[in-house]
Structure prediction request, 534 residues.
Amino acid sequence: MTLALALEQLLNGLQLGVMLFLMAAGLTLIFGVMGLINLAHGSLYMVGAFACAAVASATGSFWIGLIASFACAAAAGAIVELLVIRRLYDRDHLDQVLATFALILIFSEGTRWLFGSFPLYLDIPRLLQGAVALPGGAQYPVYRLAIIAAGALVALGLYLLIGKTRLGMRIRAGESDREMIGALGVDIRTLYTVVFALGAALAGFAGAMVGALQSVQVGMGEPVLILAFVVIVIGGIGSIKGALLGALLVGVVDTMGRFLLPQVLALFVPPSQAGLIGGAAASMLIYVMMALILAVKPRGLFAAAHA
Amino acid sequence: MLLDVSKIEASYGASQALFGVDLAVAEGEAVALMGRNGMGKTTTIRAICNLNPPRAGSVRLAGTDLKGKPSHRVAKLGIGLVPEGRRCFPNLTVHENLVAAARPGAWTLDRVNVLFPRLAERHAQMARSLSGGEQQMLAIGRALMTNPRLLILDEATEGLAPVIRQAIWAAIRKLKAEGLSILVVDKTLSELLPVADRCVILENGRSVWQGPPAALTADLQDRYLGV
Prediction:
C-alpha cells in the first residue's frame, strides 16, 4: 500500500461523500421542514441523470445538460409536490412511504417507457477530462476533483441560503412552528413547494454529475437513496450540517473500508479469503458505524433541538 | 368596523367550543375580550385568524369576508397575532424572528427597537435563550413588523413579573395612542380595563355582555369573571 494509493482512495471517498451530501441535503430538508419521508428522492436523482444525458447528447454540450438536469429535477419535484406530496403532510409516515414508493415505480416505468431499458452514457466534458498528479506520483481524474469542488460550493450556497436569507429564516421558522409562520402571513404551502423543488434540484444535479462516471439507467437512484438515509440518520434528521458531516463520514468510511479491510485481513488469513471476507465486512462497515453513532447519540450527530 | 365577527361557531374536533360569538373592533379602538378560563377566548381568536376556521357565522376584516381564506391571507389582510404562549421561533435569532415574516409599512425594525430597546440589545441571541418577558416583547414586535391593521394579543402578560407586565402594558398603551386597533385578552382586570375602550365577555362559547369598561360593575365582574 502506497501513500499515493491511499490518497487516491481518500479522494474517492470524499467524492462519494459529496454526492451523498447533495442527495441527503434535500432529503433531510424535506424531512426536517415538512416531516415527510420521501422515498422518491432517488427517482429525482435519476431524472437529473437522464435529463443531462438526453440533453447533452442532443445539444452536444454537457453544460447545457447539467443545467437541464437541475431544471428538470426541480420541475419534476415541484409537480410531484403539487400533485401528490402536498396531500401527504398531514398523514402518517406509513402513508408517505407507500405513496412515495408508488412514485418510484411510476418514475422508473415512465423513464423506461421514454428511454428504453438500455443505459445511456454521458461523456465527461472536455474541460474536465484528464488527470492531475497527486503528491506521491499517482494520477487523479480532474472530473472527480470537480465534483468535490461543486459539492463544496453547493454546501456553502446552502449554508448561506438557510442561514442568511429570508427564505432560509422562513424555512427554519417553519421547522419549529409551521402554524405560527402561516399566521404571520407566510404562505407555507408555497414555501414547501420551493423547498421540495430545491431538494429535487440538488438530487438531479448529483445524478447528472455521477452520470458521467457511471451508466445512466433506470433504478440508479435507489442504492444512493439508501445511503442517503443512512447519512441523514447519522447526521441528525433535519440538519444540513449533520448531512454534510454524515455524508463525508459515510463516503470516506465506505471507500476506505473497501480499500483497507482486505489488506488488513491479509495479514491474518490467505489473500484470496482476505479479499472475500474483507469485501463483505467492508459493505457492512457504514451500518456498523451508524449503529455505534446511534448508540452514543440516538438522534444523530446534530439532532435538531426541537421535535 | 375594522373587524366584524358575527355569530361564529367553531369546534375542536368533535366538541363544539363556540356557539355564537359576536364582537366588533372599530378603527383605532382597543377591545378587551374577557371571560373565565375555557369560555372560548383563544378559540375565538383562532377562529378569527382562520387557524381554526369557524363553521358558521362570519368574520369580516374591513369589509372583506375571511371565509375560506387560509391563515396567511388573513394575516396579509391585516391581522397581526401575538398568540397565547408567545410562540417565538426558538431556533431563530431575535433579529430573524422580527424580519422573517416582516411586510413593509410604518413599522420598521428601528421603530420596534425603540419600542422595546431590550430586543435591540439581544438582537443576535437565539429566541430560546430569552426570558419570558423578552419573548413576549419579541412576539409583539414580530407581529408589528407585519404592519397589521389589527393587533390581537392573547394573554400577553401571563406569567410575567410585575415590572415586565408594566413594560408590556406601557407598550400596548403607546400602540393604542398611535391609533392601532387592538383586540386584547388578559386576566388582570386592573391593568386591562384602563386600556380598553370596550369589553366583550364570553361565557360557554357565547358573547354574553358588551359595553364600556365603566359599565362593567362589580356584580357583572363577579357573575362572569370571578373565580
In short: The mean pLDDT of chain B is 93. Chain B touches chain A at residues 49, 51, 70-72, 74-76, 80-81, 83, 87, 89-92, 96-97, 99-101, 103, 128, 142-143, 146 (CB under 8 Å).
